[in-house]
Amino acid sequence: MPKMHGGQALVQSLHRHGVRVIFGLPGAGQYEAIDAIYEQGDIQYITTRNEQAISYMADGYARLSGQVGVGLAVQGPGFYNTTAGLATAFDVSSPVLLITGNRHRGSVSGESEYDSLPSYKAFTKWAGRATTPAQIPAIIQEAFRHLNTGRKRPVVIEIAPTVFAAEDEVTLLAPETFTPRPGDPTQLEQVSHLLVDAKRPLIWVGAGASKSAAFVKNMAERLQSPVVSSRSGKGVLSSRHPLSLGCANPAFAPLKARIDASDVILAIGTTEDFSDRVAHQTVIRIDSDPAEIDRNGAQTVGILGDARLCLEIMSHQLVTMTPPRPEVTEDIQAINTHRFGSEEQLQPQTDFMNAIRSAIPDDGVLVAGMNQMGYYSRNYYPTFVPQGFQTCSHHGTLGSVFPIALGAQIAQPDRAMVSISGDGGALYNMQELATAVQYGIHAVLVVFNDNAYGNVWRAQQEQYGGHVIGTELHNPDFVKLAQAYGARGVKAKDASELESALKDALDVKAPTLIEVPVGPMERKY
Fold first, then answer.
1. Which residues contact 104 (CB under 8 A, 6 or more apart)?
2. Does 523 reside within a domain?
3. Omega into 348 within 30° of 0, i.e. cis?
4. Are residues 363 and 334 in the same domain?
5. In degrees to the nearest 10, what's the CA dihedral of 291, 292, 296, 300?
6. How many CB atoms lie within 10 A of CB 270?
7. Which residue among 48, 183, 196, 300 has the highest number of C-beta atoms inside a 10 angstrom radius?
8. Under 8 Å CB-to-CB from 343, ≥6 apart: which residues?
9. Domain final residue pick, 339, 365, 393
10. Are 52 and 403 in contact (CB under 8 A)?
11. Per-residue model confidence (pLDDT) at position 516
12. Omega prior to 520 cis, within 30 of 0
């Protein structure tokens, strides 16, 4: 067995598991690991300017690459800075491996040893610890087992500074092969019959259906079933398809009525809560997480398995089962015509959204933040490909979208990558413009600037008698700030200028910030 220190054992184990990108911020306690990355030679190490961006970038990388996103953060405050990103990755089922040290509190003479592993449960699927270099390969193997089986969510590994520095005889392990669970064939046949017998079936897709787009389209057409999506499922069926009903917005009455009129709902890879479904509806839920299947009671028929494999089997079954069905596209077109008609739209949101959609290629990615344009995009940004629309999760982690976009751009450097943010959220991670410039990551950040935490400001105005406190902001000149970092900075005063500036930014392929001055925007839904 070769003798090596803990840093080498970690990096060589990660390399064996296919890791070629690591996000981190070098610090005491991980010197040996950082040096081992240097020695390895073919792993790209991306240094962020705040640890918060480590987990956000690893999340974005994992979402778009389909591989594990790996981060290194020092113990204590370094790790704590990553927790918002870990919680976001947990919520969107993103396979992120975060490696940190131990002793996540100050050392006091005589205090008992603190076991921090249980504290990770709120935002990780699993956590483990290596106490010697020899244990590291097995811990990495176990981490990748959790990252590649069942529902994909973050895991954390603790390796103490003393373990990184220690030398030991280490046996490196080969990566395991994981076979996705296909679903029970008898159950799949039963639910196929339920769909065939349904008078008004509906397909509801989430991010877990992203790799099943072809099967979703095939099933929708065969069943003449409309398709609605969660926010992160936008694009599984193209917005251009005549059976697409877009994002499932219950506040739009005609869409809610159409959903409620469905007698069988096929839910694929979505965390949507169906406990409030009307009595006549049966929900068929396909998911890799038993907890998702079990939480909605007697009306749910659960299929535990990989969505793509389940749908492949069901598609073959439906070919032999399905009689001709009358087209329902006229019904769907009427709903979409109403929903996207001028009476349902708001200005200037509609013009800005049309400008963004026009500038971004069909296969480009929009990462939507927690601002009025981000909210508007959930319902009104047409999405044509799976994973073409990314969110900051149900947690609504302010400031996450730009580093998520940077990680996603590293994963797929040839795709257009655009994030939209308000001015308040943009400054959470503005320092990562320096990272984008340093590594040539050409994601675009569009900042809609109303000089306020606009949503809270509105609540203070409308619900608290105009008692405005803490929500009006003094901002930098965003264009000059971007230029100071070495990025491109552009101001767009209206939708036409935004479309032009965004097209230019995507053509130039350089880190770009586009500032769009706006005032308070009218809300709907």
1. 75, 76, 79, 80, 114, 116, 119
2. no
3. yes
4. no
5. -110
6. 26
7. 48
8. none
9. 339
10. yes
11. 98
12. no
Whether residue 304 lies inside any domain: the answer is yes
Question: Across all residues in the chain, what is the average pLDDT?
Answer: 92
User: Which residues 6+ apart lie within 8 Å of 480 measured at CB?
Assistant: 489
Between the CA of residue 93 and those of 49, 84, 228, 364, what are the distances in Å? Answer: 25, 14, 20, 21
pLDDT for the residue numbered 299: 65
What amino acid occupies position 157? I
Structure tokens at 250: 């219950």
Domain C-terminal end among 276, 307, 339: 339
Give residue 106's pLDDT: 47
Distance, CA of 207 to chain centre: 8
Number of neighbours of residue 399 by Cβ within 10 angstroms: 23
Give yes or no: residues 334 and 358 share one domain. Answer: no
256 φ, ψ (degrees, to nearest 5): -60, -40
Q: What is the CATH number of the domain that holds 217?
A: 3.40.50.1220
Candidates 24, 60, 45; CA nearest to 407 is 60
φ/ψ region of 486 (left if φ > 0, alpha if ψ in -120 to 50, else beta) reads left
Q: How many CA atoms lie within 13 A of 426 on its CB side?
A: 30
Answer yes or no: do 388 and 327 share one domain: no
- Answer yes or no: are the C-beta atoms of 406 and 473 closer than 8 Å: no
What tokens were used for 308?
A: 């793509």
Using only C-alpha atoms, the chain has a radius of gyration, in whole angstroms, of 24
Residue 11 · residue 159 · CB < 8 Å: no
CB 425 within 8 A of CB 454: no
Q: Which residues contact 399 (CB under 8 A, 6 or more apart)?
A: 52, 369, 421, 425, 426, 427, 428, 429
Place of tokens 């590594």: 439
508 and 366, same structural domain?
yes
Domain count, the chain: 3
One-letter-per-residue 3-state SS of 127-183: EEEECCHHHHHHHHHHHHHHHHCCCCCCEEEEECHHHHHCEEECCCCCCCCCCCCCC
CA distance 115 to 393: 29
pLDDT given at position 102? 83
Integer Cα distance of 153 and 148 in angstroms: 9
- Structural tokens at position 468: 């405005």
List the domain range (segments joined by +) for residue 449: 345-517
Q: Decide if 97 contacts 154 (C-beta within 8 A).
A: yes
**Confidence (pLDDT) at 523:** 80
Backbone angles phi, psi at 250, to 5 degrees: -70, -15
Residues of the chain with pLDDT under 50: 105-108
What sign has the CA pseudo-torsion 453, 459, 462, 463? Answer: negative
Asked if residue 516 lies in contact with residue 448, where contact means CB atoms within 8 angstroms, the answer is yes
The label of the residue with tokens 């009358």 reads 326
pLDDT for position 114 = 65
